[in-house]
Amino acid sequence: MPGYAVKPLIIGIAVVIWLKFLLPATGWMFYELHHATGIDWFYWGYSVFRGGGYFFSTWAYQTIVCLIVGLLTFLLLARRGKRRQLTEA
Q1: Is the pLDDT reported for residue 46 higher than 90?
Q2: Stretch (H or E) spanning 3
Q3: 71: Cβ contacts below 8 Å, ≥ 6 apart
Q4: pTM score of the predicted model
Q5: Residue 87 maps to a domain
Q6: Residue 71 counted as domain residue
Q7: How high is the pLDDT of residue 5?
């Protein structure tokens, strides 16, 4: 695998893991920030991520969509890395 594609691969895998497993946990982070700071828009973030995480986890196509988004992230970042490598050479 070319050197410019390793970092995009890791980021793509991280996006898949975040979408599949950590979306509700992101909501809890906003919940804790709301209680620690008292800032209302953190609670809105909590509501969005908790609701989105719940509905996304019950969706039948969740795994397929996670893989597609991760693949697209990898392809876009690898393409950008390849362009930078060609322009620097």
Answers
A1: yes
A2: none
A3: 12
A4: 0.82
A5: no
A6: yes
A7: 84
